Amino acid sequence: MGFSYIGKTYLIRVSNVGIMTSINFRIQGHMMKLVEVEGSHVLEEIYDSLDIHPGQSMAFLVTLNGMVKDYHIVASTRFTKKILTATESFIIKAQKSVLLVLCLLGLLIKFIGQ
Fold first, then answer.
1. pTM above threshold 0.70
2. Contacts 24+ apart (CB under 8 A), 77-86
3. In this predicted model, what pLDDT tens digit does every residue of 15-27 receive, in sequence order?
4. Measuring CA to CA, which residue among 12, 105, 82 is closest to residue 50?
5. Helix or strand or coil: residue 97?
6. How many domains does the chain have?
7. Nearest Cα to Cα of residue 86 among 13, 32, 23
8. Which DSSP symbol is given to 27?
9. Residue 42 has pLDDT above 70, yes or no
10. What digits encode the pLDDT tens for the residues 58-112?
11. What is the CATH classification number for the domain harbouring 98?
C-alpha cells in the first residue's frame, strides 16, 4: 500500500511483458488519460480502463481527485477462459506523497504469483 495526495497527477506506464494473455488495467474511481502507446504520442483520450495486449506498453496520466480513502488498482486477464485478477490499494491523503510505483510493483508481484 502506498500513499498519494489529492490533486497530484501521476504519469504511469504499464507494460504487458507476457506472450499470450491480454490484461485489463484500471484504477478504482479514477479516469486515465492515454498519452503514449509503444513510445509514440497518441491523440489523448480518457478511459476508465485499458486493455494492454502482449508486448504492448501504454502510458497514461491519472489525477488523484477522490476522497481521502483506499482505492484499488486492478489488473485482470482478458479473452481467457479462466480470469485471473490481482489488486493492490493506495490511500489518497491530504499531505505527503509516496510514489504510486510501490503499489504497482505489489500488483505485479501478485499477478505473476497467480
1. yes
2. 77/21, 77/22, 77/23, 77/24, 78/21, 78/22, 78/23, 78/24, 78/51, 79/21, 79/22, 80/21, 84/111, 84/114, 86/110, 86/111, 86/114
3. 888 888 888 998 8
4. 12
5. coil
6. 1
7. 23
8. E
9. yes
10. 999 988 776 666 777 888 888 878 777 776 666 555 444 444 444 554 555 444 4
11. 2.60.40.420
The rounded distance, in Å, linking the Cα atoms of 106 and 89 is 9
Residue 2 CA to residue 39 CA, distance in Å, equals 27
Residue type, 9: T
Give the list of residues 6+ apart from residue 114 with CB closer than 8 angstroms, or none. Answer: 84, 86
Give the DSSP letter string of 31-65. -EEEEEETTEEEEEEEES-EEE-TT-EEEEEEE--
Cell of 26: 484500471
Write the CA distances from 25 to 40, 95, 97, integer angstroms. Answer: 20, 27, 22
Residue 81 lies in domain? 2-112
